[in-house]
Automatic annotation (TrEMBL):
Keywords on record: NADP, Oxidoreductase
InterPro entries documented for this protein: ADH-like_N, ER, GroES-like_sf, NAD(P)-bd_dom_sf
The protein's name in its UniProt record: Alcohol dehydrogenase zinc-binding domain protein
Molecular function GO terms recorded: NADPH binding; oxidoreductase activity, acting on NAD(P)H
Domain (Enoyl reductase (ER)) ranges: 14-311
PANTHER family assigned to the protein according to its UniProt record, in alphabetical order: QUINONE OXIDOREDUCTASE PIG3, QUINONE OXIDOREDUCTASE PIG3-RELATED
Amino acid sequence: MAHVGRAVVAGDLGGPEVLQVVEVETPAPGPGEVVVRVDAAGVNPWDWKSYAPGSGTRTPVRLGLEVAGVVQAVGPGVRWYSPGDDVVAWPVTGGYADLVTVPQHVLVRRPARLDVVPAAGLLAAGVTAAHAVAATGVDDEDVVLVHGASGGVGRMAVQLAVLRGARVVATASPAWHECLRRLGAEPVAYGPGLLDRVRTVEGTVGRVSVAIDAVGTAEALDTSAALVADRRRVATLVALDRAAGLGVLALGHGPGADPGADVRDAARSQLTALAADGSLDVLVTGTFPLEDAAAAHRRSREGHAGGKLVLTTR
Ligand SMILES: NC(=O)c1ccc[n+]([C@@H]2O[C@H](COP(=O)([O-])OP(=O)(O)OC[C@H]3O[C@@H](n4cnc5c(N)ncnc54)[C@H](OP(=O)(O)O)[C@@H]3O)[C@@H](O)[C@H]2O)c1
């Protein structure tokens, strides 16, 4: 049976003003599909980049890559999930909605100790950070420089690198330094003079062995390239087009980039387990009702939200 509910769409290319809340019909799930009743949906920079002028996206387009919710209905051949199960899903298409239909393989169970709002902000940033940490081979001998460490991806990369036993130097605005210290990182402010500031972090001179860039500025890339001897241990998640020229890793979706599908898929259940047992913290700095997706996007576009923004449906 089809259900009607709300969904956020970008009606045109542009800024957050093009977002609309529309009614959509969700048909009964097909083979291998699951309909999830969305309780919360994570906001990611990709959501507003996807409908920006020049993105080439065909509109109208539904938004939202990750959700936390409850299984509402399962299609033929779905063996591992039943109506009523608490789940988290990534990647999904159209997660900013009351209901979303997903293939069963993108789901993972939400442990009871992981609250629904942080769960909605865990996976997209978490799998990206897990990919970066794995691709650069972080271990307990490393000093890891993380650019954009106060953001969704950077904060996850800091925590995953610390869990691997690495020492972490983290770039962020001063307002986030105390927060990063609590995660076990040594913060430095980004901006002019970054290379010298990193070099003055005690005991790291000549020892920065890995860099993970979640910012994409020339400053982040050039500082990384100057500090890390082995360029294959520098990864950018943003400046994918500059990576080949510098000989560094480009991770994500883009020409020549490593999408890391296997690592990212495997990370889903690891991340939910770590978040449920308190080893991984998802800092949610803003929740917005679904209708206010445009306000959430305005905040995300400013680039200093300091954690995850999440939309809620009730
Ligand atoms: N390749 C992939 O697979 C993939 C996946 C997910 C995300 N991404 C990309 O990764 C980036 C980060 O995503 P996110 O979710 O972490 O975003 P976010 O939560 O909005 O974080 C943005 C970060 O950028 C920092 N920042 C802003 N302006 C800066 C500047 N001029 N110099 C240095 N740092 C600056 C912020 O620091 P302060 O707040 O401390 O100022 C904050 O840490 C986005 O571009 C996103 O599209 C890529």
